User: What shape does this take?
Amino acid sequence: MNTTVKIANRSLSVFYGAVQALRNISLDVPAHQILGIIGPAGSGKTALLRATNRLNDLNPNCRVEGQILLDGEDIYQPDFDAVRLRKRVGMVFALPVPLPLSLFDNIAYGPRLSGIRTRARLNELTEQSLRAAFLWDEVKDRLHTSALRLSGGQQQRLCLARVLAMQPEVILLDEPCSGLDPISTAKIEEALGALKSEYTIVLVTNNTKQAARVADTTAFLLQGELIEIGPTGKIFTAPEDQRTNDYVSGRFG
Amino acid sequence: MRIPPRHTQALAVTLLGAATGLTLAILVFVVVFILGKGLPVLSLGFLLDSPRGMGKSGGIFPTLVGSIILPLMAILIALPAGVGTAVYLSEYTRENMATRIIRFGTDCLAAIPSIIFGLFGFIFFVTILKMGWCILAGALTLAIMILPTIIRTSEEAIKAVPTSYREVSYSLGATRWETVLKVVLPNALPGIMTGVMLSIGRCIGETAAVIFTAGASLRLPHSVFDSTRTMAVHFYILAREGISNENAYGTAAVLIIAVLTVNMVSYWMMNRFIARRTK
Assistant: This one.
């Protein structure tokens, strides 16, 4: 399979104070695919995501070494604008965090920041993103009620729709289904499968079965190190590293 | 010997209930006492007439105006400064020696008796800046007096806004300022308003800081450079000089009703605001 690389991590290390969360990782994120990142808690999965959209900048104790190249450009260059980066690289968090606003205002949050003000355009974006997140039919009659009144699964799909409305290039998902029931999880996975033709998706999950179901490529992290990366089929059936084999077969983690 | 838990439980409930009851009783007693003595004096004329004979008879209209204009101006001055400081301290700076010193300074300022502020206002605004006794000098002094409260309550309210909201905002491509405007301040508003209400209450009830800076003129002020008398100061002078006990209690009753009204209206507005956001 011939794919272009969207994001290239080069010798990436991330430190939180004295703790090193990522150790010298070099990992390519292929464009228009779902990259699954698996690994036990504390293996550095979230640290990798937060380095990729520079959300780590908000943490004064965090230090990043190495390079992350987005379309070949180092996002940690001093003149690289973190705000513009985050508009290109959207993120869905582990716990759904709807802002205490209406559904519509939640989804319009990103577009409005980009200067889109006309009602018609915002309506259009809202419908598109909600449809893409498989939420439109459930909420189309209450777009102007509080997002806090949605169920957990709906909230998480709203968060996905909110990211889509930004029209990013990359979507980072940090264990997006960890708090959801199987049906909501299935809907999110269905949405992701449909989205990968347009977006590059990085899906961190501590549910190995989820990676097996939706990821094209899977990477296995352990204690801040990249143990193995390869086509999902290969990682789950014929991994090269014994530790990968132990993890995906459920022997630890 | 160990007292059985259900007895300690019963004891705790009794003591806590008694504490609550006592607080409530004192509160009710004060309000009923003042209103009982003051309400018979009240009439539309009492509110809208000018005082005669230094307040021996007539109404309290100029002091009513003073009691509205002074706290209002003080809040208008202190709110932007206080909220701005709180936002800067909590969103734009990292916790370090400087912020700790600023915070310590604010706390110290909050503990200073109001008469010291009055003295400062008298020396600085009235004398050195040659403002004379006037509304502006009084409002500035009151603003300095309530600034620590506004900063502290705003800071607490801002800190109480979940970090996850900020992360969502940043991750959707917002700058720090956009995040402050769209996420931090709207969600901190109820807490900030609590500080504002407390401050308005303090301003309305303040005498020491006002009498030194805004003076005690009974004439209706025409500009911020005129002296004025607030209801609290009027009450103090009426009672202290023994001019008229009835009118003193009448003024006190208006003062209490005013504070209650301010609180109730702001609660109502707050609830409407919260309801609108979570509808």
Q: What stands out?
A: Residues 119-132 of chain A form the longest helix (14 residues).
